[in-house]
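Figure 6 in text form: structure in, sequence out.
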């Protein structure tokens, strides 16, 4: 699994278009010190495979400087922008999170960072994928994801769609 990214001004000017390839971003790892130029989208992508049965995508971005204002956008099938996305976090928080549920398909997942401020951003990006639309059923101790259906099978003592609710014995 590999990611690639490019940086592009939202109002493209040929001389400002840059492409960066073969940036090794891997699901489940923190990717530190990624540049996000001012007033520009920086794009990352990951090619989803229907056979992987991915149903949930969680992206976290942490701003590592004190001056910038980066926003996080996620979209399946095409690059997101400030008006078209499947999930976004445009807060001024240090940590931005986007959590989307998707249908398994052979499509490209796009992650866009738009630095709203005049100050370029430096961020840490994390990307996680899950086979169940509810984040792997509460973990190994609480439930198991049935990959074929994307549903959780809860272990004894747990309930709810994501197996995160403990069954309490009223006795």
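Output sequence:
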């Amino acid at each position: 699994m590999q990611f690639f990214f490019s940086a592009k001004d939202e109002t493209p000017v040929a001389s400002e278009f840059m492409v960066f390839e073969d940036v090794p971003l891997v699901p489940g790892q923190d990717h530190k010190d990624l540049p996000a130029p001012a007033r520009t989208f920086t794009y990352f992508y990951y090619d989803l495979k229907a056979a992987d049965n991915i149903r949930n995508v969680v992206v976290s971005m942490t701003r590592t400087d004190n001056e910038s204002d980066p926003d996080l956008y996620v979209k399946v099938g095409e690059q997101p922008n400030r008006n078209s996305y499947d999930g976004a976090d445009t807060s001024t928080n240090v940590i931005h999170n986007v959590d989307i549920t998707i249908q398994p398909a052979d499509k490209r997942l796009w992650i866009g960072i738009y630095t709203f401020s005049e100050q370029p951003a430096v961020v840490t990006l994390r990307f996680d994928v899950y086979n169940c639309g509810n984040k792997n059923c509460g973990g190994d101790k609480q439930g198991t994801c049935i990959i074929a259906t994307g549903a959780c099978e809860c272990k004894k003592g747990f309930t709810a769609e994501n197996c995160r609710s403990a069954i309490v014995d009223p006795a």
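Caption detail: The longest strand covers residues 121-130.
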